[in-house]
Write the structure tokens for this entry.
Amino acid sequence: MAKLKSIEDLLIHEIKDLYSAETQLVKALPKMAKAASDPELRAGFEQHLEETKTHVERLEQIATSLDASPKGKACQAMKGLIEEGSEVISENAEATVKDLALIVAAQKVEHYEMAGYGSARTLAGALGLDEVAELLQMTLDEEGATDKKLTQMSLQLIPEAEALES
């Protein structure tokens, strides 16, 4: 890794990390959708896949505006989160409990992304890169909305899972 000499270097580093995370997620979300038994959850994963593709395009746009490539860094954190999600997919579990486990895995991903986008937005703001900060904020807002939807879905599924225990 090249030496980080400036806030702009750090911002580019973070954009590359987010780009790697999002491109990994584009590959993982169809598997999560396929593993979901609840139709609303499946549709939610499919909808977020389309949003994630837009996030990738935004990061490419941001990298171009920074005269950088978004490629060249592997996000190890996302790799680990996706591995955890893969374990959930292969888990032998009741359908509703597995759906809840998929939501847990997805929310871990969302929280990681929200931290990354929030930090990158702050760096862009510090550099006076208002358009970049705005694009990052748009994605941050979408990730937050997805997290809220996942919470609502889990609240709907929990009573069903509790009924399995009785």
